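chain below, 369 aa
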Amino acid sequence: MSTDQTEAEKLLALRNKIDAIDEEIGRLISARAECAQEVADVKKANLPEDAKILFYRPEREAQVLRKAMERNKGPLSDEEMARLFREIMSACLALENPIKVAYLGPEGTFTQQASLKHFGHSAVVLPFSAIDEVFREVEAGAVNYGVVPVENSTEGVVNHTLDNFMGSNLKICGEVELRIHHNLMVSDVTSVNSITRIYSHSQSLAQCRKWLDAHYPNAERIAVSSNAEAAKRLKGEWNAAAIAGSMAAELYGLKMIAEKIEDQPDNSTRFLIIGKQAVPQSGVDKTSIVVAMRNEPGALHKLLEPFHRHNIDLTRVETRPSRTGAWTYVFFIDFAGHVDEPLISDVMKEVASRCADLKLLGSYPKAVL
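prediction:
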């Protein structure tokens, strides 16, 4: 028997094995989907006809994803395994009731990418042109959830998102962290050796400043409303390029001529999931609050002391001027834990006694993906 024949037989045996495994995977996914449908039927049977059923449970999905990562033995990474389960859950949930999600658009933005990362590709994601529009759509009940950016590891917080929480009754139901990779892209009519202008969002231009200084020091840098808008502008411009994410390149038929050009390799953005529901404990949670304080000596120390005394991990503290009175400030605080935990509940009562006003924005699962 020749070597070629031996290799062919080995490949055939392996392919047959893969086919058998695929058949079993398909059967198990169908069984899971049927079980998800039964869950929906149980929920419907135990609620009044006019009651609103919560098909999507953020805490339950976070627990499933964490278990998938804990059980993983490789060779796929834990994150890749969780992504696969994310899509299976998204498809199963769509059988019950497809989720509608509003995000800060237009199409092709990192916020759309974050929306699909969190809810899966079976969700119905709808772009809106401003953060306050996303809030309004969720408040009106036109969509189930919204996705908005809240902070970037390089450029800091998105103040417009924080400001919208001050006048809204919406809750934070989850978070998603997205590694941000910027790419230089051109259209099919671009003369690559003659690029004289580069379009992108102002933050993306700032995050790629050193790379642009080194490679295109004389090109005009033009800030536009979004990276997707930058990508859209390239059609018909022979001397222009854009900085955007890979999703924008796919959506608008562009070619990436340089990838991952961001100056900080760990550049990432955190997005918040906003909705109307309070989320039960998942086991690994975060809480966000907004606190109003008078601008007086020791105010911040007075506010944060209970967290320090009870060894509660603060993950973010931001200050914004209040809209309600002169020389009054509000503090946006994120910390580890869930408000239903006795310790966290006690600390919230103590903090509330020390401030002018305290508003719970939400307790929610810490980002898994």
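The mean pLDDT is 92. The longest helix spans residues 3-45.
thats it, cya
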